[in-house]
Design brief:
By secondary structure, this protein is mostly helical. Helix content is about 40%, strand content about 5%.
Length: about 170
């Protein structure tokens, strides 16, 4: 069995024209970024959202780089709504004020391990500390919602809908 058959393809979650449109949105927001990196970011955002939809009771958050792809995906509201319907409900995004010092390596480890459990191979370079400057994106935030030990994808008060922290 080849390695490619061991992991789910996140692009299969949306029609090709939707993937291309989300890639174009990330590219428009980050004109200096090369196309292969933009595609990786969108793929990672799809993996993240699908993982959140599968594990609704777990606290996960995207990296700043992955959040760039999530933002672009959300902007395509009809496509995002259809994706979330496949995931049995919305994956909400609750914005925070930008604060790059919030980077929490344990959130990254937890989130990427949940992605693996969901069948996705994380692209670890997209989950790095934003202060490294290795990959710079237009989004200027990281995620660490209040009242959560790791991160909080579920809205305080026990809502069953999956929620996400970030800007």
């Amino acid at each position: 069995m080849s390695t490619a058959t061991l992991w789910k393809d996140p692009e299969s979650l949306v029609p090709p024209q939707v993937f291309a449109a989300v890639v174009a949105t990330v590219r428009d927001n980050n004109p200096e970024m090369d196309e292969p990196l933009v595609r990786r970011i969108v793929r990672e955002a799809l993996k993240f959202v699908a993982t959140c939809g599968r594990f609704r009771d777990r606290g996960m958050a995207p990296s700043r780089v992955v959040d760039e792809g999530w933002h672009a995906l959300i902007l395509h509201t009809k496509a995002y709504e259809e994706l979330c319907a496949q995931l049995d409900g919305p994956v909400h995004h609750y914005p925070e004020r930008p604060d790059p010092t919030r980077y929490n390596g344990s959130v990254v480890i937890f989130t990427t391990s949940m992605m693996q459990e969901a069948g996705y191979l994380p692209d670890y370079r997209l989950w790095g500390d934003p202060r490294s400057g290795e990959i710079v994106v237009a989004a200027s935030c990281t995620h660490s919602p209040p009242d959560c030990q790791v991160s909080c994808m579920n809205k305080p008060g026990g809502s069953q809908a999956v929620t996400g922290a970030g800007t």
